[in-house]
């Protein structure tokens, strides 16, 4: 019975992030990365502003499945205010988590740790990692106003 209640909580948090995504929209400055997942049809445009080594603001737009949208929302909350190094480390922890590897670092993901169940559905891993991959590209290519053309995952 307790597991069922926990599953319901996880579903509720995921649905909340999907239906009311945090940091949804666009920014007027910063790095912009477009990625899509042709398998599912998910598309994300991630805007990231850096203040030196820190992520000072970020927003995303696009369309996608519940998992993709929730993951993008959760990712923005997890990495805002973090350094580039911290954000890359969180992206790595997230990627490992959704492929079935457990880590004590998962708690640092905030609500994103509720997506651990994605590991039971391999076809949803790309949906869940789309925003995180866009973040990694933004960090890797940050040079002010960089715009990365659409890429397929």
UniProtKB/TrEMBL annotation:
Gene3D superfamilies: 3.90.1010.10. One of its GO terms (molecular function) is iron-sulfur cluster binding. It holds the Pfam family NifU_N. This is Nitrogen fixation protein NifU. SUPFAM superfamilies: SufE/NifU. Belongs to the NifU family. One of its GO terms (biological process) is iron-sulfur cluster assembly. Residues 10-127 form the NIF system FeS cluster assembly NifU N-terminal domain. Coiled coil: none annotated. NCBIfam families: SUF_scaf_2. It comes from the Bacteria.
